[in-house]
Amino acid sequence: MIILRNKIGSLFGCIALCLIGIVACAPDQYDDPVPYQPFPDIVLNLNLPEYVGLKTTGATLAVSGGIRGIIIYCKQAGEFIAYERNCSFHPNDACATVNVDASSLFLIDPCCNSTFDFATGMPTGGVATRPLVQYKTTYDGSLLIVTDERLD
Q: CA-to-CA distance for 91 and 37, rounded, in angstroms?
């Protein structure tokens, strides 16, 4: 009976240590979520010379709006994604701003060195564990509209 109690006590001790180890190795999620900042609809006429290039697959454009600006990405003809430029890792840090990498292949926050995929906004490297905030877009063949409605 005493031996059984010692084994059970040891088993619970091992389980407790394992759980502590798992929690200690969990991603850093103690930071705040990206705050919500309403903005008026952004309306771009993609038939105008200054915006026509955005119709090209892989093209990007940074515009004002949101917290630190918005990056619009042309995923494919007629399909656009709009990301908040505020990094999802420690978004209240003064330097938590996402930019298009010089290679134009991904997004990067030079402050925390987190990288993000254009197609999904998911982190692909660095310390960020949350995706970038994505805003609703609609396109009617000429007008691209970005609203402050967040997509989950």
A: 13
Q: Domain-by-domain residue ranges, the chain? A: 42-151
pLDDT value of residue 39: 97
* Residue 99 CB coordination number (10 Å): 15
pLDDT digits (tens, 9 = 90+) for 88-127: 999 999 999 999 999 999 999 999 999 999 999 999 999 9
Q: What pLDDT score does 9 carry? A: 47
Cβ proximity of 108 and 99 under 8 Å: yes
Asked whether 62 and 85 are in contact (CB, 8 A), the reply is yes
pLDDT of residue 31: 67
Owner of token pair 């930019």: 99
Low-confidence ranges of the chain (pLDDT < 70): 1-31
- Provide the H-helix boundaries in the chain: 2-24
Q: Are 81 and 121 in contact, with CB atoms under 8 Å apart? A: yes
CATH placement of domain 42-151: 2.102.10.10
